[in-house]
Write a structure and sequence with these properties.
Elements (H helix, E strand, L loop, with lengths): L9 H8 L25 E8 L4 E15 L2 E8 L5 E7 L2 E6 L12 E7 L7 E10 L3 E20 L2 E15 L3 E12 L3 E6 L3 E9 L2
Antiparallel strand pairs: 1-2, 1-12, 2-3, 3-4, 4-5, 5-6, 7-8, 8-9, 9-10, 10-11, 11-12
Length: 213
């Protein structure tokens, strides 16, 4: 089974494109971002099931506090199982994450910033981002991420709990000639809660419990 989903995203995409897998979850500025309520001390307990062979992993994400980078405010989110972390922020309806992927094969040395959710778009709305990668034998290639709002304002039940005002985001990836267009993941975010479920072809991550400070 791949490493846990911490939204979305960019580390997951980079490694998936290189034949391995890893993943990451998403951001918040207190009382500003409805779909990522991460304030210092908030906890989110997740269960990831699936994989080959089938397995179940439980882990907790903790919002550890505010920090800044290049003058921009972020919040630090840590994974208690791996000790991994990412920086997150939200502004104007865009939910961003900043991830150091320099240790991954063929990945950029500088931290990668990506918008993995937009709560200002209607159902069917989409946006794209491009990540340059250097692939041995092929040179410089462009990894294209396409995000599409597939649900907006819906109700979703996860592990017996009903969540309202849910946004579903499908992420497609392509990098010709290595990776043809394909769906990589579909993530669901509930208003006032954040990520409640993330589906990939191999496994599903679900929110078990949470404490919001």
């Amino acid at each position: 089974m791949k490493l846990r989903y911490l939204p979305g995203l960019i580390a997951f995409v980079v490694v998936a494109a290189c034949g391995k897998e890893q993943s990451l979850e998403g951001p918040y500025r207190s009382n500003v971002c409805d779909y990522a309520p991460y304030a210092e001390g908030s906890l989110f307990e997740y269960e990831q099931t699936g994989g080959t062979p089938a397995d179940t992993i439980h882990y907790t994400l903790r919002a550890s506090g505010d920090t800044s980078l290049n003058g921009e405010p972020y919040i630090l989110l840590e994974d208690d199982a791996t000790g991994g972390f990412s920086l997150f922020r939200c502004n104007g309806g865009e939910y961003m994450q900043l991830v150091d992927v320099s240790s991954l094969p063929n990945a950029p040395e500088e931290p990668v910033r990506t918008v993995y959710l937009r709560d200002d778009l209607p159902r069917g709305g989409s946006w794209t981002e491009t990540l340059p990668l250097t692939v041995p034998g092929l040179g410089e290639l462009a990894l294209t991420l396409r995000y599409t709002i597939v649900e907006k304002g819906t109700v979703k039940v996860v592990l017996g709990k009903e969540y309202k005002d849910v946004i579903g985001v499908q992420m497609d990836v392509s990098m010709p000639p290595l990776v043809l267009p394909q769906v990589l993941s579909t993530s669901f975010f509930a208003k006032g809660v954040g990520l409640i479920q993330a589906d990939t072809e191999e496994d599903t991550t679900r929110l078990k419990a949470y404490t919001i400070r």
